[in-house]
């Protein structure tokens, strides 16, 4: 009987061995985190990117990307949030994350010198910390830390100015006259008036994001801005009417692209290669991207950066530039409050790593010997990036590997300078050093009551404003109706919205 009992015990032990091994294997399975984020045409964010694979291997976690194509992205975000059960990390604009602030794990205690030392180096700064906090001072998300300020620039064809004997325009009126000379002077030499003096690709939630910055030279922003401590609404400011008159005059005479609301990047590039475009406004890397369109063609084309034209009072600035934390872009990361503790720890491990020196090198430069080399102490991108065999621009080549992707990260100034030309660095330095970057209005955190007023009144105002501004530019609505438009916005509750913004701004500035 004893022998039978021993045999039975032995058989049971052997039978249970696979279960023990399975339990051990299960314990060693990496934690899976999911990340929802925008998947842009020029900045892919999806499974299979090289950097995502490297991060999984280095950190011992499994990362699943939920890609959201940018078309109707705001609607997709709204549907995501309405669903309730969210991915581990959601990346989107700060103001939209704060609309659902209670969905995100409070980070005040989790970001500390011991557990997340790399994040702590940045977010221990009170000025930075408040940019990612709600109205109660609770940290709700991690943003992308930028390395430069001048992200967007004007640029034009200097060879056309030289060909027509035109001086560099200094003011908005000078620029109008140059636009006229370009339109009428046939600088492309084909005998047709097919030049587009100012052409852009559609950009921003209302598609006019690369046209409207001209109004900054009248001392205003398109929506909210602060002047002497007072919050104002640019879309109804008297100076907006003056700026719109200039834009409308240019549009009516064919000096501004008639397709600025619909022209995508491919069509914009085509207009350049068709020898039609004189001037544009976009991210600084596009100066090189456009120049590279002609690299295999014998041409005297000379594309150079340009400072903003001075408005009536001498202001020469842009306001839609990069901030220390890029709150207005899609890569601010909130960690879902309903995620498991293991997922939250893995998410923080990921975010802390990409803020580390090693993670910063990975996400800005890639792998040494493959994507970059160190030459005399400087980081230099390899031919795989700078002379990509698939014909990609340096920026697009980087992003095809997930380098400088939509994942929240710590940017490095060496990256910004390494992949662009001397011309881009020259004009970017001028913007930053000579006062061509205006004060950006901060992303504000609102109380629940304040947010209720914004939801009730500003959403309708914004829709009406967006439709009407384009009508004024295009001449569909005459500008002698500007005062009627202002009165309508005021009837829709602008005063209440401004009071909310003023209160939130005053809190922010304390």
List the topology elements.
Blueprint: H1 2-28, E1 32-39, H2 50-59, E2 62-69, H3 73-83, E3 89-92, H4 94-99, H5 117-123, H6 126-130, E4 152-157, H7 158-163, H8 172-185, E5 196-198, E6 224-227, E7 230-233, H9 238-252, H10 265-273, E8 277-283, H11 285-292, E9 303-306, E10 332-335, H12 341-354, H13 357-365, E11 372-375, E12 378-381, H14 383-386, H15 394-400, H16 413-418, H17 422-433, H18 448-474, H19 482-491, H20 494-509
Parallel strand pairs: 1-2, 1-3, 5-8
Antiparallel strand pairs: 3-10, 4-8, 4-9, 6-7, 11-12
Helix pairs in contact: 9-18, 18-20
Protein name: Extracellular solute-binding protein
Organism: Aristaeella hokkaidonensis
Describe the protein's architecture and organization:
Helix 9 (238-252) packs parallel to helix 18 and helix 18 (448-474) crosses helix 20. The chain is of the alpha/beta class. Strand 11 (372-375) and strand 12 (378-381) form a beta hairpin. The chain has helices at residues 2-28, 50-59, 73-83, 94-99, 117-123, 126-130, 158-163, 172-185, 238-252, 265-273, 285-292, 341-354, 357-365, 383-386, 394-400, 413-418, 422-433, 448-474, 482-491, 494-509; strands at residues 32-39, 62-69, 89-92, 152-157, 196-198, 224-227, 230-233, 277-283, 303-306, 332-335, 372-375, 378-381. Strands 2-1-3-10 form a four-stranded mixed β-sheet. The chain is globular, with a radius of gyration of 26 Å. The chain has three domains: 32-147 and 325-411, 3-Layer(aba) Sandwich (D-Maltodextrin-Binding Protein, domain 2); 152-305, D-Maltodextrin-Binding Protein, domain 2 (3-Layer(aba) Sandwich); 448-509.
């Amino acid at each position: 009987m004893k022998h039978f009992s021993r045999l039975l015990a032995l058989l049971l032990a052997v039978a249970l061995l696979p279960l023990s091994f399975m339990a051990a294997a299960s314990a060693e399975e990496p934690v899976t985190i999911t990340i929802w984020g925008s998947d842009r045409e020029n900045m892919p964010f999806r499974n299979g990117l090289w950097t995502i694979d490297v991060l999984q291997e280095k950190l011992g976690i499994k990362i699943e990307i939920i890609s959201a194509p940018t078309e109707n992205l705001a609607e997709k975000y709204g549907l995501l949030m309405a669903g309730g059960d969210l991915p581990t990390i959601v990346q989107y604009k700060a103001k939209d994350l704060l609309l659902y602030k209670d969905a995100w794990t409070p980070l005040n205690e989790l970001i500390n010198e011991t557990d997340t030392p790399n994040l702590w180096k940045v977010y221990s700064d009170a000025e930075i910390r408040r940019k990612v906090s709600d109205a109660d001072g609770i940290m709700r998300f991690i943003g992308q830390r930028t390395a430069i300020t001048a992200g967007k620039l004007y640029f034009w064809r200097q060879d056309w100015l030289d060909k027509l004997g035109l001086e560099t325009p200094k003011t908005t009126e000078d620029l109008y006259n140059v636009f006229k000379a370009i339109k009428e002077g046939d600088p492309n030499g084909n005998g047709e008036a097919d030049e587009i003096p100012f052409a852009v690709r559609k950009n921003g939630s209302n598609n006019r994001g690369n046209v409207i910055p001209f109004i900054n030279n009248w001392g205003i922003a398109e929506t909210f801005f602060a002047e002497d401590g007072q919050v104002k609404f640019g879309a109804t400011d008297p100076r907006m009417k003056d700026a719109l008159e200039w834009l409308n005059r240019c549009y009516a005479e064919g000096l501004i692209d008639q397709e600025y609301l619909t022209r995508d990047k491919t069509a914009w590039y085509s207009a350049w290669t068709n020898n039609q475009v004189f001037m544009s406004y976009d991210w600084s890397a596009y100066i090189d991207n456009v120049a590279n369109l002609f690299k295999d063609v014998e041409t005297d084309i000379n594309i150079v950066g340009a400072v903003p034209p001075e408005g009536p009072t001498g202001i020469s600035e842009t306001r839609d530039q990069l901030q220390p934390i890029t709150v207005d872009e899609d890569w601010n990361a909130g960690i879902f409050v309903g995620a498991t503790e293991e997922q939250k720890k893995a998410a923080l491990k990921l975010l802390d790593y990409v803020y580390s020196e090693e993670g910063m090198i990975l996400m800005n430069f890639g792998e040494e010997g493959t994507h970059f080399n160190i030459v005399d102490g400087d980081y230099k991108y390899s031919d795989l990036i700078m002379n990509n065999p698939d014909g990609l621009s340096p920026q697009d080549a980087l992003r095809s590997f997930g380098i400088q992707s939509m994942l929240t990260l710590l940017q490095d100034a060496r990256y910004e300078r390494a992949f662009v030309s001397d011309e881009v660095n020259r004009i970017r330095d001028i913007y930053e050093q000579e006062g061509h970057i205006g004060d950006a209005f901060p992303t504000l955190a609102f109380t629940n009551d304040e947010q209720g007023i914004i939801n009730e009144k500003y959403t309708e105002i914004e829709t009406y404003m967006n439709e009407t501004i384009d009508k004024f530019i295009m001449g569909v609505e005459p500008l002698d109706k500007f005062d009627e438009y202002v009165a309508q916005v005021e009837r829709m509750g602008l005063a209440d919205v401004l009071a909310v913004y003023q209160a939130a701004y005053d809190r922010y500035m304390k």
